[in-house]
Sequence to fold (829 residues):
Amino acid sequence: MNRSLRPLLATALIFAIAYALAVMQFPSMFSTRVLGNFLTDNAFLGIAAVGMTFVILSGGIDLSVGAVIGFTGVLVAVLITWAGMHPVPAFAIAILVAGAFGATMGLAIHYLQVPAFIVTLAGMFLARGGASVITRDSVPINHEFYDWISDLTIRLPGGGRLSFIGLTMVAIFVIGALIAHRTKFGSYVYALGGNPVSASLMGVPVARTTVAIYTLSSVLAAISGIVFSLYTSAGYPLAAVGVELDAISAVVIGGTLLTGGYGFVLGTFIGVMLLGLVQTYIIFDGTLSSWWTKIVIGILLFLFIVLQRLIFVASAPGEKAQKA
Amino acid sequence: MAETGYALEARGIVKIFGNHVALDKVDFGLKPGEVHALLGENGAGKSTLIKILTGAYQPDGGEVLTEGVPVTLNNPQHAQTYGIGTVYQEVNLLPNRSVAENLYLGHQPTRFGLVDRRKMERDSIAVLARYGLNIDPSSELGAHSVAVQQIVAIARAVELSGKVLILDEPTASLDRNEVERLFEIIADLKKTGLAVVFITHFLDQVFAIADRVTILRNGKLIDTKTLDSLTRTDVVRLMLGKDIAFSGATKLEENRPLGDVLLDFKNYGRKRSVHPFNLTIHKGEVVGVAGLLGSGRTEMARIMFGADAADEGTVSVAGTQTSIARPTDAIGHGFGFCPEDRKAEGIFGDLSVRENIVIALQGKLGWFSALNRDEQMEIAGRFGEAMDIRAASLDMPVKLLSGGNQQKVILSRWLATDPAFLILDEPTRGIDVGAHAEIVRTINRLRDEGLALVVISSELDEVVAYSSRIVVMRDRELVAELNGENINPGVIVQAIANHKDGAQA
Fold:
């Protein structure tokens, strides 16, 4: 069996078992209402995690995601509430700004040969600082377009609702999976994560691919920021602090190798759902401190890193001969 | 095809790096349907020439012609469009992706903008079948052996280019059966009119497959000949340069009563690295190791020192069987190792001379008995004087010293641990004459003091001068042990070139 499938199966299995256990304790967790809320509540995280999946598959990291979400939220809120703009052009502007931001980071990473960690760390401070310069306060958004989107839901039997933003996340996952697994660009992303030297010798356009990856990540972070503003009806410069770390966790729990080259977009979806499940369980329980979420995520992350290590060490092909 | 009859030709190629002339007016012609071996020791300019032929470097003089037409090759991808494909020693593919994707990456068939995986895998099966490979194209490349990966790399190069195939040490990590398999494939490709450049350190392989051979030395073209007109000895002589055959001036150290057996390696070896060898080393003797570069000399040294663990055979130290799986084990038994690549594996460039000298001793003493500064100064000063290390101060960074003084520092490092056995890999390479003599003197002195030494060197005169015995490596195998009176560099060249058991792939 393809060994990169094993962590994915492990994640799926853990999710199934955890969900079954949760349902045994709280039968009401097995309802379309809870499932619908799963999607809605984690939409912004899921969308950002799709971008993060591409970045990590290519062997990089993007620490600017949370800051870009916060910046986009503020930018959109300011454009709508202060400048009186219609949300749709405001969204377009936000996506363009984020795209340029991501492209710049990609250019710096490729041409200056600076580690992605450092470049995106700088990007994180820039975006977060930029958002705080625009405003220090939460800017509420009251626009009929926002109300209209909030009402766009599909009612499910059993009282659940599929919201627009939940469906947006699902759509982005589907498109992301197609790009990763069925396009040349996707194969270049995996190639970079596998071995950048080989990739360039095999004719992969390394510069173009790197820039595209970070642009994609920032654009998805911007969409995530828009979704977050739809979810909270406000823009706040300190929103979504640390979301990049949740996204990285979801990607790794979803079976993507942190060093790149192996993984699936679908795995990230299960990873996000698993994180959501932990949170929902703690809310249902009611007596547990919400910090338990962090502890469980920590344990899961650790478990998956060990698991991946074991799988890849156990099935490593014969070691290469030492060179003279 | 133009009148030159060459698929790929280089005329008067000059390449200069800084002050160093890497290639000096080299001509090279490759005919369709031939396997052309490119030989030379490391640094002779083989890889520079290959990089120019594949567009990775631009020549500073001369021109490259494909089918008689001068061309400028901007990069390997550009060379590919002229039909020139390359397979490197390290398989430069993606072990994390499927076999099919490795064959077609960048050229995948698409349908509606999406990769048509089914067509790609169907095509892959057809392509691989031509190379006698019957593997699942959707399987991960990394799950296959290096040999299969190598064949996939060749298939990719031939599919995408199709006129010239350059194989840069393709057999370096293959075992014998795999090499045979590869040679069958090359022979088939030759029949289809493909021109093949074959680079290797293994002479047997050259004689097994090549039609013509071009030999480079120090950036100069020595000769291009058909192989039928050459013997192995001729080739070795052309590669090494000096007509050393019968200089005969030097002899091995006269036989002296052997000391006690210190080390006994029995069937000691490591897969894909060195064939099992037997070697007994006595106290107070110097065992010289001769062989061409890449013949497995360094690998043997690394295994002896535990830098690479042996996976078969046994070793006993002073009569007791033991295991040396890590350098720590080796140091515990009183071994020391001065590696070939001083800068990368020997010195700690930014640390001082003093720290470089005491580091092995400190490692041996462990965490809890740190040498204080005075003790360090005392030790460093003692060896600095004994070894005549020329440094302005013992506290200056060792990277500022000359190569010869760096070598003395590394030797001192091991001598400070009071070793019983030292392995020196090319101890005199790249150092000046004075330091050279100093090191040879030190080797003699240490032997007289009862140390056992293994010294690897390409300088045959030198090996003969200080060795009590000489072992010869060829194709990662210990092939001969030379003893007694009549050993001179000529005999060693014969032993390196000679062939024990007929044609082997």
Q: What stands out?
A: Chain B touches chain A at residues 76-77, 80, 88, 90, 92-97, 101-102, 105-106, 108, 110, 113-115, 117, 139-140, 142-146, 156, 172-173, 271-273, 293-294, 296-299, 302, 308, 340 (CB under 8 Å). Chain B has a mean pLDDT of 83.
